[in-house]
TrEMBL record, chain A:
InterPro entries: AA_ABC_transptr_permease_3TM (IPR010065), ArtM/GltK/GlnP/TcyL/YhdX-like (IPR043429), MetI-like (IPR000515), MetI-like_sf (IPR035906)
Protein name per UniProt: Amino acid ABC transporter permease
Protein topology in the membrane: Multi-pass membrane protein
GO molecular function: transmembrane transporter activity
Annotated transmembrane regions: 20-41, 62-86, 106-126, 133-152, 234-255
Positions of the ABC transmembrane type-1 domain: 64-252
Locations listed in the record: Cell membrane
Species this protein is from: Alkalibacter rhizosphaerae
From TrEMBL, chain B:
Keywords, comma-separated and alphabetical: Signal
Protein name listed in UniProt: Transporter substrate-binding domain-containing protein
Residues of the Solute-binding protein family 3/N-terminal domain: 29-251
SUPFAM superfamilies on file: Periplasmic binding protein-like II
GO cellular component: membrane
SMART domains (UniProt xref): PBPb, PBPe
Entry-linked InterPro entries: Iontro_rcpt_C, Solute-binding_3/MltF_N
Record-linked PROSITE patterns: PROKAR_LIPOPROTEIN
Amino acid sequence: MDGDKNNTVTKPNDGKNETFKAIGSILIALGVFVLFFYISLQRLGLELDFAFLYQFRYRLFYGFRMTVAISIFSLVLSLFIGVVSAVGNESKLLPLSYLAKMYVQFIRGTPMIMQVYLFFYIVGTAWGITNRFWAGVLILSIFEGAYISEIIRGGIHSIEKIQLEAAKAVGLSNKQTLGLVVIPQIVKRILPALAGQFASIIKDSSLLSLISVIEATQTIREISATNFAIFESYIFLGFMYLALTFPLSMFTRYLERRFSYEN
Amino acid sequence: MKKITILGLILIFSVMMLMGCSQGSGNDELVVGMELAYPPFETKDDKGEPMGVSVDFSKAFGEYIGKEVRIENIGWDGLIPAVQTEQVDMVISSMTIKEERMEKVDFSKPYAKALLAMLVNANSDIETMDDFNEPGRTIAVKIGSTGHSYAEQNLSQATIIPLPDESACVTEVAQGKADGFIYDQLTIYRNNKANPDTTKAIFIPFQDVEYWGVAVKKGNTELLDQLNAFIDEFYADGGFDDITEKFLKEEKVVFDELDFEWFFSDVNE
């Protein structure tokens, strides 16, 4: 927050100077970070050799692509599940409302590893979902949907009553109120949180390696299981996820800044 | 101001790293890493204490060199890294001596041996290993196990499903999600016994014997020499006969009936 404020206060002609300062600071911070790991490695007498990764480039690329695909499908499906669950939660039909509440409580209150096994081996088998990719997308979406549901519910509750009264006073119908006043504001308010949740989807997809979905993590596990270069493998895995989550977190920041001004 | 803060940070980091003493074990303690998930070799008793063949074996070695033994329970993937980073002095976890592993750690002489077998779904029409090496067949294996490398080398036509633990592999077969699960004979025998209606066991005929060894940090010849001398002595004194009697009595009878080679027979001959 402080950083944002500083940026707005900066005079235009200081812009260039500030940029240089920022880049310098980033480089120093990065240097400390790298140095810390380097010394840690030295202390253990470990030597890292990343050359073998080239040999596995096709598998790594395939796994990376799989992580991207799962994340994108899960984003769409979990958003749908989240909206349905949030609306269900607010429903005046009590059984429906409790069903939605129970779903959110169960998913948020239990670890994902247990849900992965439970859904794949019991629910999945019982209902004939044998494809690991789609089973994975489904499990991940059900998991993330509960969190998205809460984000959306927060958005719904953030709309002040007075706005609805104002809309009525202006003579808008219920439909118009929803479409012109309520939904645009909810979307605007929850967008940064939703974008942040997408980063969680990308990271949580790594748990699908439990049921052998050949995504990035599973690929790395398989490779390191045969050549035992576990440190190099997992460091590279970290960079693969960062390549996806870092731009996303920049985008989330951008959204947060933009909407914080507009409000 | 900022620069001073950053320089200070770097200084603090450096001092921390110079001062922090290494986390290795004390001199009187021998830390042994094992994955306590493979009964009766490495498992836990009802109170959660480490128990099994490897536990008794390591304690006997501790007595032999006059050190207190502490068992660290570490996941399979983490065992070799634990040796590399000196979190443990050695790994005794039914680990097969393999060339790829020897690039990362040193192994003692073999102390036991094992052969692979396959668990298949009870409804499956599979009878020989050749039936498996076909497109459309699916084989569950535990990630990083010798069954995993066997499948990659010998069943390249089939789809291999690497999973993190044994129970998931067995579930895959019992539910028919995978056609087979390759692991050592003891595990296959035991899981077949636990799921008699849904699975059957097939023993793989032509294969190399896998020798189990103790893994130590590369270049630790002192410990390695002690281990090798101890293994010879333990064999000569009938230590492994006592262990068989204590943990593997039933299995020994079945293995003898099936004409399988026993874990501790003629390992170094």
